[in-house]
Amino acid sequence: MSDQRVHAIWLNGALVDARGPHISVTDRGFQLGDGLFETARARRGVVIELDEHLERLYSGCAALKLNIGMLPDQLAEAIDELLAAEQLGGTGRDGSPIGDAAIRITVSRGDVERRGLLPPDFEEVVATVAIQAWPYAPTTGEARAITSSIRRDPASPLAGVKTTSRADYVYARLEAARAGAEEALFLTMDGNLSEASAANLFILRSDQLLTPPISAAILVGTTRTWLLAHAERLGLVPMEEEDLRPEDLLEADEAFLTASVAGIVPLVEVDRRPIGTGRAGPRTRALRAAREDWIDAMSMAALLPEPPD
Amino acid sequence: MSDQRVHAIWLNGALVDARGPHISVTDRGFQLGDGLFETARARRGVVIELDEHLERLYSGCAALKLNIGMLPDQLAEAIDELLAAEQLGGTGRDGSPIGDAAIRITVSRGDVERRGLLPPDFEEVVATVAIQAWPYAPTTGEARAITSSIRRDPASPLAGVKTTSRADYVYARLEAARAGAEEALFLTMDGNLSEASAANLFILRSDQLLTPPISAAILVGTTRTWLLAHAERLGLVPMEEEDLRPEDLLEADEAFLTASVAGIVPLVEVDRRPIGTGRAGPRTRALRAAREDWIDAMSMAALLPEPPD
After folding, report:
1. Fold entry, domain A8-135
2. Interface confidence (ipTM) of the complex
3. What number of C-beta contacts closer than 8 Å exist between A and B?
């Protein structure tokens, strides 16, 4: 990771010293994991697929009846303010990006002194909104995964909601680390492949692109959506709506993980068994490059001057 | 609830203003719900079943590989310090308790600037430890419950760990509130009764005392343990190790919930259908009184001077 020390965060309307303290112990994010988050990549100061991230964030707020107290446009402006202050994601004299940034938006239900699980009424408390940014340099690493002992419930109303209640995911990553792996895969209660702790999972079977369906208790990542939309242009046949079993992964030609910040990462091993050749496959590498090119193009397009009427 | 404004909390070694701010946005409790908590009742400044609470807390720390950085005795002293400062739980001139207190210990993995799910190595970060206390007056209320759409997984390694990742429980309480109920019951994946969002569940079938087994993805509450140990003395036959189905609840003579702070609370309705007569049953009321008497006796016993050798 190229993450370095940051100097400021954006908190509830203003830039503040990243060192804190910032929030009270009574904040329901700290007390109960009663919050939501999003992570995104920025290049040249342009947040990639920002609308999709904000849409998921606001959907999560609705599911939890959480009063974010800000419009999406205000949140977008806040990110711009932070990136500018942190000098992240500008453009050098030759037009090349100075460096990418990883961004995290964290929204908790807010500071509530009253104890207990039940939140106050919607109007009575306004969310704590924090935005952090780190320098990020795209890497070309590979990932090995284990299968977590934690299972995901496709019937959960929060299955697709990115809450800050991540203890299950932290535990899964501890399991992975213990086995010398970088990621953990979850199965559903039915034993189907679901997702990784911080990424969606894809399998390549010849030129077929397969991924667990939304009904497999996944968080629908923006890179997943992009891949399914662009698969045919990239010479692949997308076959989304198929339940995948663990053996499908072991029998795949190639496999990879997708995440907003890390992009497309080859998955070369699961539970110490190789996937395909056990090394990053050629199709995965091509997809990774295509995604990075697209990110670059999108960031440049967003910076073009508005055309005259 | 009789909870009132508190004035101080104990945080990482010292009493501080309850108003905050106290912690950084980078605290993993806020970022990821990467923490644990306990709630307990104090009477006369004596924390009831403190050893059991601390044992569960330290077990949870071990499960999450979380470095609490304090000995149980130090934590007990910290609670005493807070209760004294808040003038909670003293004894009046006639020996009667001034008032009970509800206590919450919250332990997060601590402040970690690096982003990502994987925690630093055990030695590299020390937990954030916060203790809060509120005045508490025992009530004689009843509870109505709904069945949550969230299910619990008996196979989860965190099923018995009281993490601060409570979004599922918050969601369940929102479901309950929407239906005009005070509590939410969880079923396991297998459709068995598990527990309530903040309480264990008991059923009375004549003089038989039944409760979901530990294998039903429950948090083993101290009041549950106490009841099973004291059932025979209280004229009941404890029958713990039986899976219970939702229909067992509807066909029960009486039902109740148990929690450390609220004690024994009659459960009179589930999904708008009455349990037993639909009112607090006589056995439940007797058990509640017995538990409150025991709490009173334990608090007095703890304050007796040490016997001379």
Report:
1. D-amino Acid Aminotransferase; Chain A, domain 1 (3.30.470)
2. 0.95
3. 223
